[in-house]
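**Polypeptide and fold**
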Amino acid sequence: MQNGFSLCALAGLALSLSLAATAQNYKFSTLYSFTNNGTDPNTPSALIIDGSGKLFGTSISGGAFNNGAVFSVTPNGVLSLLYSFNGNDSTNAVSPINLVRDRKGNLYGDTRALVKSYVGDLFELTPQTNGTYTFTSLYVAPDVPAQIVLNPAGDLFWLNCGYNGGPTCDNNTSLNEISNGQNSKLYFFASTGFYASGNYVMDKSGNIYGTEAGDGGQTSWGLVYKWSPVSGFSVLHTFNGTDGSDPNALRQDASGNLFGTTGGGGVIGGVYSYGTVFKINSTGTFSTLYNFCSKANCADGSYPYGPLTLDSKGNIFGVLNFGVFELTSGGVETLVYNSGSVFMGPGLVKDKFGNFYGTTINGGSAGLGSVYKLRPLQ
């Protein structure tokens, strides 16, 4: 009996250590700190990365005219301003947010505002042989662009959020496509009063997946939806608060499974608290993978947001208000980096060497934000 108990205990301990060992340790370093030099970006958003490891991002302020900018940062930490919004070009566009890149290196994005206006602009930045980028306005939105995604043909799909000067989307909210210079509306959203959140994901069949963050439970805690060019709009999951609230980003793996975060809700602390990581598999089945603040004193972190990053082993990486987390395929969560009082920017990108990159909203040498690197320790 004693030997049997000992063997079972040892087996359980070995399994526990095996699961814990799958969490990788990382070293944090600042790749670039934004400064108040009159041209640096300020308040950066999420990054994208190309095959060489060069990072691209946007900022809602800063740049040469303090109206926002698109920038790049090399793996060695060299920053280049690709375009500064001046508020005086053909569209008066300012404050860029989202950014996507095609195979030719063209950048596409949206601005949340025009000068003295609540409408925005969809734009393209084309690289020139001398290293500069040419700005082209693709479409001046009737309201505020909120989410974008690009298909292989170069068509830009985007969400028009009818803010109408308020914080939530109204009855003008629609999914749109810009193709060959023409904008067309694909779907009008029946629900109103929700917050547009997160990012768009497109699969190989042209299906688009997105989130509505909800309206604080007045009518909804948020939902995940799908738009199909064949079958149209459908809701994949509606949140009830205890399984999360305010979904804010999605990522899809090669098998068609969707992964995302909710900024609040879950079983720890009730519908107003802490957040979750969730999965919707390729057949549409929803599951909660992790409830934050499950550990004493919220040692595992809280309030995740921004798109997740997946590795080949099924591990999930993401950003919290004040840190970066890893959730292994075995369900073990680790706070990879604790930023203290520095707010993290949304989402991470990963290079071919396993390094992660992201932004901070404040912090850095001047307190104006930074681009950081997380290097795996061997």
Summary: The first strand starts at residue 26 and ends at 33. Residues 1-22 have pLDDT under 50 and may be disordered. Residues 27-45+73-85+99-104+142-376 form a domain with the Methylamine Dehydrogenase; Chain H fold (CATH 2.130.10.10).
